[in-house]
Amino acid sequence: MTRQFKSYIDGQWVAGSDGADDENPADLAAPVGSYGVLDAAQVAQAVDAAAAALPAWSLSSPQQRADILDRAGSEILARKEELGRLLAMEEGKTLPESIGEAARAGQIFKFFAGEALRIPGEKLASTRPGVDVEITREPVGVVGIIAPWNFPLAIPAWKIAPALAYGNTVVFKPAEIVPGCAWAIADILERAGVPAGVFNLVLGAGRTVGAALVGHGRLDALTFTGSVPTGRALLRQAAERGLKIQMEMGGKNPLVVLADADLDQAVECAVNGAYFSTGQRCTASSRLIVENAVYDEFAARMQARLAKLTVGDPLQAGVDIGPVASAAQLDTDLSYIGIGRDEGAELLFGGERVECATQGHFLAPTLFAARPEHRIAREEIFGPVAALIRADDYEHALALANDTEFGLCAGICTTSLRHATHFKRHAQAGMVMVNLPTAGVDPHVPFGGRKASSYGPREQGRHAVEFYTTVKTAYTAA
Ligand code: NAD
Description:
This is Aldehyde dehydrogenase family protein. By secondary structure, this protein is an alpha/beta fold.
């Protein structure tokens, strides 16, 4: 056992109790560390501390907030290799992907350091003579942050950084299986100079610690990223309580490949989008919708490309796909592979666990030839499993792409300007990619979806101001 990760409440490190292992999904015999979980009373202390810190922090100088966020961003960037290594060991994505995520988290802190100095406002002429109207933005208050495990540095960064930049205080609950990354963020924020109570970290299960956070009467707003069922349950609670809420949830993202596409490029987009990060991305291309004329060739090229991918220890050079993040997620993946077979989808590649030098949750990249009605083509699996679906032509492909409850990201590979332009306009998704993988976005522009994938204002970029501030309209007569 190497490290013990603690919670952080009101400027103090809190050990918690009932310690749990922080598993290494690539090597179950060598956990990353352990962590203690909090009880409901300790979660309440964290929210109370955030509430007590709010008046001073909400009126703090934007320069102070900018400096703190900038220091945090600089430290993350300077330590991106080390933080990436922790991420790779804890969550299982490959080291280059993990270092890339750490760098992105650092850039996000730096972006919002700048935004703290650019909080927008407006001054308008009133309809009444002699009256001025000012529209200003104020912090929304105490913000609860509930995050998933699949981007354990970047997602917390894109919630914590804007929350603090706009003068809110925070209680952050990460997913159970990534306490180390969450601890690292808290450790860096403490060193960056965040005052006691402004940022709090509460470790533990969703059912207990998450529920205690959402149920605390002093919370003003809740930002959640995770699965649709959890998000829907939290939405009901938030509605009863009148909480401001922002939710990013699941996806079943289509990548359309038209007959006029550059097929080499399309295969790379599909492999990256469907299988990198072990397919555990909300923006993963889990539906590959291919025009009939190139379907067989595309399928053959995919099989050949998948055969060249290496599954294994994410820390090892040359590994393309790390382990599935947890035993529970592996069970889900394997159960969907079984469902695919039972429903008559044709297994084109993978479908089985991979033996490696260490005991871990390794799974082969898996490709099915599926029909649109198959469950593997409709439900989010959140693993390295993709469904290849045949389309008659562009119009059919677009209809298939939109035939889903989700609406996070949609991609198309085509050399036709007409089809690319039409797709950008008519894809029912919050984000559209042309000749790019559906996963992989810039940190300075809005991120989010439609339909069951998202609820509330967008995250990231300047649009983050919508969730993390509330608008005030002030009238002044001379
Ligand atoms: P999850 O819904 O199981 O858990 C998400 C978080 O909610 C965790 O921190 C968990 O502990 C907490 N939680 C669970 N039950 C709770 C409760 N009753 N009260 C309060 N908190 C509770 O999701 P996950 O397995 O961690 O993440 C995978 C999901 O996240 C996938 O569906 C994926 O698509 C989605 N995701 C979406 C985006 C996006 O931006 N749209 C990004 C990443 C992941």
